[in-house]
Design a protein that fits this description.
- The protein is built from 18 helices and 40 strands.
- With 754 residues, the chain is an alpha/beta fold.
- The strands form 7 sheets. Strands 1-2-3-4-5-6-7-11 form an 8-stranded parallel β-barrel, surrounded by 7 helices. An 8-stranded parallel barrel has the order 28-29-30-31-32-33-34-40. The chain has a 6-stranded antiparallel beta sheet with strand order 9-8-36-37-38-35.
- Helix 17 links the parallel strand 33 and strand 34.
- The longest helix is centred in the first third of the chain and has 17 residues, at 237-253.
- It is flat.
C-alpha cells in the first residue's frame, strides 16, 4: 500500500482541519461504540457529509466501532454498521469479535480493520485477523521497528502503526484497572486513566505509570508503505491541524521544521518518547507531572514582590499561557501573561533572550528560583492554522440512479429501479426536438434532499415531441418520491453452533506455577490448565496428569519465535489441548488442537461466541469485566463456556518496566513491588521484560455465580504465588459456598458505568 497519513477527528471541525493540512485519511467515532466515548464524535448526518467530502478529494474515512458489546446492544450495533454502510465509509475499526462477525456477514462491502484494542503484537496475531476477514491490522504501540517490518512483510495485511500521541501504560485492550475499580471500562470507551494516578512505590509518592507522549518525528521515514496513525480524537481542530501539518511536512520533505515542533508543544504536549520503536527503552514515564506542560522556554531567575523574571528562549506575547513547574505538585502552575515588562516598560511582546518580568496572579504558589517555565499556549499559534471547509450540507452521499424516459403523444413515462410512473397530457411536435434531452436532464438532475444522484438518463422520443418543463418536473417529482430512500432491512446473522446440551460443569484450575501444578491432587479438579513459559520443555510436564491437562500460552508472546518452537515441540510430544488469550494463539497452535479461549479475549455476546466456535475453539471464557445479567443471558444460549470464580486479575499488562536498573544489567528474574494510590493497594510483578499489576484483593465471584449453567467454572492461581495448602483452602471454600474475605467482584453484580 501507499504510505498513508491517518489523522484523528473527534468532531467535524477536526476532520476538515486534518484534510486541509494533508491527512490522507481520518478516523472517527459515532455517538456509540467508540473507544473515545467522551469525544464529541459524529452524528449520522455529519458522517455522511464528511465521507462525501473526503471522497470528493480522494481521501478516506474510517469509523471506529471498537468497543466490546453486550448481548442487548447487538441490535444497536447493527444500526451503527448500517449507518456506516449507507455512508460508504472506507473501513470500520473493530475490537469485538462479534461486531466483526456481524459486519463481515451482513455488510460484505464494509472493510474491516483490527483495532489496536485487539492487542495484536506479533505476526501470528496478524495472521489470525487475516483468517477472520480483516484487511488491516492496527498494531500494538509497544512494537519495535523490526517487529513492525516483519508483520508488514509476511502477513499479507495492510499495517497501521501509531506515530504520535498519548500512550497507555498497559497494552491497549488488556487494561482492566479502570473497569474493575470504577466500572468505567476502557474497552467501552470510558477509561478514567488510572495510570495517571499518584502511587506510593518504594517509599516514593509519584506517577510510576504515567506515560510520556509518543512522537516518532523523523523516524516515520523508516515506515514506508504503512498507515501512520496520529492519536487524538479528544483533541481540538487546532491540535489536529498542527500535528497533521507537522508529519505531512516530514513525510514530504524528509526534514523537521523546528518552528512547527515548537508550535505543537504550545498547543498540547507531555514530554515526548519514541517508546520501544528503536529497542527497549526505560525513558517512557513522566513521574512527577501529569497533563500538558507546553514548550520549555527557560527557568525562573528572580522572584520578587509577586513577579518573576527570566530570559525566555522563545518569544512570548501578552495573554499567552505560562506554566511553571512547582516541586511537590503533580500539575504545573498556570496563568495568563497579562503584564509583560522589559527594561522597566510594559510591552505587548517580549523577544527571546530579553529579560522579561511577569506579574503573578493573586494566591499564586511559592515559586523558587530555577523552576522551569513553559509556554503553554500562544495567541500567535492559535491563529497559525486556519483551514477551509465547505458550506454545511454541500456534500452528501448519493446513489447513482439511471432513468429511462419514454415520450408518446398522450403521456410521458419514467422508469428507474423497477419503479414506473407516468404523466398524461397531449404533446405536439417540437420545433427543436434535439433540445428535449437537455430539458429532461435539467429536470431530473434536481435530486434535492434525496439519497441519490442522476446517473445515465436516456430519453426515448421517436416522434420528436415537445414536453413542457412543468411536465418534466412533475414526472421527476413523482418518480423520486416512489423510489425507496433506504436499503432493505437487515438482521443479525444466525448463530447455529451455540445450541448445546447442558452438562455438569467441569472444575478447572489454571496456574503458571509448575510446582503448584505438580502438588495439587488430581481430585481437586477435572481439568488443569498450565501456562507455559518461553523456557518450557516436554520433560517439565512429565509429572502432570496428561488426560486432565490443557496447556495455555501467555497473553503476550514477545519474542514470538520461542513460543512457536515450544508449541511445535509440545504438540509433537502429544499435547493436543491448548488455551489462548490472544489472537496469536489461533495461528501458533495447530488447527487440529482442542483450543479454548481465555478471558483476555473479551467475549460478551453470542455473535462473538459464534465467531470463536467458527475458529475451531471448543470453549470461551467469559470476560472478567462482564456483568452477571449479561452472562446469564449468554448462558441461556450455550454451555460452551467457562466462568472464572477466582483470580488475581492483571489490571495492567505492560511492556514498560518499573525496575530502576538499566536493561543491559537486568537479571529479568521475578521481582515483586508493593504500591498504593490511596484507594487501594496493589502488587507490581516484573519478570522477563513484562510488568503485571494486580490488586492485593483477589477477584472472587459471589456464591450464586457457581450455579450459573456454564460448561466449566475456573479458579486461577496465576501471577501471585500460592502454597498448595493455600490453594486447596481456597478451592474448598469456593466449592462449599463460603465467602472469601477481602475480595472483590468487579462489575459482576452491577452494570457498566455510563
Amino acid at each position: 500500500m501507499k504510505t498513508e497519513l491517518l489523522s484523528p477527528a473527534g468532531d467535524i471541525e477536526a476532520a476538515y482541519s486534518a484534510f486541509y493540512f494533508g491527512a490522507d485519511a481520518i478516523y472517527l467515532g459515532l455517538r456509540r461504540f467508540s473507544a473515545r466515548a467522551e469525544a464529541t464524535n459524529f452524528s449520522p448526518k455529519e458522517l455522511d457529509e464528511i465521507t462525501a467530502y473526503a471522497h470528493s478529494i480522494n481521501k478516506k474515512v474510517y469509523v471506529a466501532v471498537n468497543t466490546v458489546v453486550q448481548e442487548n446492544e447487538l441490535s444497536d450495533v447493527l444500526e451503527t454498521l448500517t449507518i456506516c454502510d449507507h455512508c460508504h465509509v472506507d473501513a470500520v475499526i473493530v475490537q469485538d469479535w462479534g461486531v466483526a462477525r456481524v459486519a463481515r456477514t451482513t455488510f460484505p462491502n464494509l472493510v474491516l480493520h483490527g483495532s489496536t484494542q485487539m492487542a495484536v503484537h506479533n505476526l501470528a496475531g496478524a495472521l489470525t485477523l487475516k483468517k477472520m476477514g480483516f484487511k488491516r491490522v492496527v498494531l500494538a504501540r509497544e512494537l519495535s521497528l523490526p517487529e513492525i517490518q516483519k508483520i508488514q512483510r509476511e502477513s499479507g495485511l495492510e499495517v497501521e502503526v501509531f506515530i504520535h500521541g498519548a500512550l497507555c501504560y498497559s497494552y491497549s485492550g488488556l487494561c482492566l484497572f479502570s473497569s474493575l475499580t470504577t466500572g468505567r471500562s476502557a474497552n467501552r470507551g470510558k477509561c478514567v486513566y488510572s495510570c495517571r494516578d499518584t502511587f506510593k512505590l518504594n517509599g516514593r509518592q509519584y506517577h510510576p505509570f504515567s506515560m510520556k507522549d509518543l512522537a516518532l518525528e523523523k523516524d516515520v521515514l523508516k515506515l514506508s508503505g504503512l498507515s501512520l496513525k496520529i492519536e487524538g480524537r479528544k483533541k481540538t481542530a487546532l491540535y489536529v491541524g498542527a500535528v497533521t501539518d507537522y508529519y505531512r511536512r516530514i513525510l514530504d520533505t524528509g526534514k523537521i521544521d523546528i518552528g512547527l515542533t515548537d508550535n505543537l508543544k504550545q498547543i498540547f504536549a507531555r514530554p515526548w518518547t519514541k517508546l520501544h520503536f528503536n529497542g527497549k527503552n526505560k525513558d517512557v514515564i513522566e513521574p512527577d507531572f501529569v497533563g500538558h506542560r507546553g514548550l520549555p522556554i527557560g527557568a525562573v531567575d528572580k522572584v520578587f514582590n509577586h513577579t518573576i523574571t527570566f530570559c525566555p528562549t522563545h518569544g512570548i506575547a501578552r495573554y499567552d499561557g505560562i506554566q511553571i513547574d512547582i516541586p511537590g505538585t503533580e500539575k504545573p502552575f498556570g496563568f495568563s501573561a497579562e503584564n509583560l515588562v522589559v527594561n522597566g516598560k510594559k510591552v505587548f511582546e517580549a523577544q527571546k533572550g530579553q529579560a522579561v518580568t511577569l506579574t503573578l496572579p493573586p494566591k499564586h504558589p511559592f515559586i523558587q528560583k530555577g523552576c522551569a517555565v513553559y509556554l503553554a499556549s500562544s495567541t500567535h499559534v492559535k491563529g497559525a492554522y486556519p483551514y477551509k471547509k465547505p458550506r454545511p450540507g454541500a456534500f452528501k452521499n448519493r446513489k447513482s440512479l439511471d432513468v429511462d424516459v419514454f415520450v408518446s403523444s398522450d403521456k410521458v413515462v419514467a422508469c428507474a429501479e423497477g419503479i414506473t410512473v407516468e404523466v398524461r397530457n397531449q404533446f405536439e411536435t417540437a420545433q427543436h426536438p434535439e433540445k428535449t434531452q437537455d430539458a429532461f436532464y435539467r429536470a431530473f438532475d434536481k435530486t434535492g434532499d434525496t439519497s441519490f444522484k442522476l446517473g445515465l438518463l436516456t430519453v426515448h422520443n421517436p416522434e420528436g415531441l415537445f414536453v413542457p418543463a412543468s411536465v418534466a418536473n412533475e414526472l421527476r417529482r413523482s418518480l423520486y418520491l416512489q423510489i425507496p430512500q433506504e436499503s432493505k432491512t437487515v438482521s443479525l446473522p444466525e448463530t447455529p453452533l451455540l445450541k448445546t446440551a447442558q452438562t455438569t460443569p467441569l472444575r478447572v484450575i489454571k496456574t503458571d506455577d509448575l510446582d503448584l501444578a505438580k502438588a495439587l491432587p488430581e481430585t481437586a479438579y477435572d481439568e488443569l490448565i498450565y501456562v507455559v513459559s518461553s523456557k518450557t520443555v516436554a520433560n517439565d510436564l512429565s509429572e502432570l496428569p496428561r488426560p486432565k491437562l490443557r496447556l495455555a500460552l501467555p497473553t503476550i508472546l514477545r519474542p514470538e519465535t520461542p513460543y512457536a518452537r515450544i508449541v511445535q515441540a509440545l504438540w509433537q510430544a502429544g499435547y493436543k489441548r491448548w488455551e489462548t488469550g490472544n489472537p496469536s494463539g489461533l495461528s501458533l497452535i495447530p488447527q487440529e488442537a482442542d483450543i479454548t479461549l481465555d478471558a483476555m479475549i473479551p467475549v460478551l455476546n453470542t455473535q462473538a461466541i459464534q465467531q470463536a466456535l467458527e475458529l475451531r475453539c471448543s470453549r470461551i471464557t467469559f470476560s472478567i469485566e462482564d456483568t452477571k445479567s449479561n452472562i446469564q443471558t449468554l448462558t441461556e444460549q450455550t454451555t460452551q463456556s467457562c466462568l472464572i470464580l477466582y483470580q488475581d486479575v492483571p489490571l495492567f499488562l505492560s511492556a514498560n518496566c518499573l525496575r530502576e536498573n538499566a536493561c543491559q544489567v537486568c537479571p529479568q528474574e521475578r521481582l515483586e513491588m508493593s504500591l498504593s494510590n490511596g484507594k487501594g493497594s496493589y502488587t507490581a510483578l516484573s519478570e522477563n521484560c513484562q510488568t503485571t499489576v494486580i490488586d492485593n484483593r483477589p477477584f472472587c465471584l459471589p456464591v450464586s455465580a457457581k450455579h450459573l449453567p456454564v460448561g466449566a467454572w475456573r479458579i486461577d492461581f496465576c501471577y501471585r504465588r500460592y502454597s498448595v495448602e493455600q490453594a486447596l483452602e481456597i478451592i474448598r471454600k469456593i466449592e462449599t459456598g463460603q465467602i472469601l474475605p477481602n475480595s472483590f467482584s468487579g462489575n459482576f453484580e452491577k452494570q457498566f458505568a455510563s
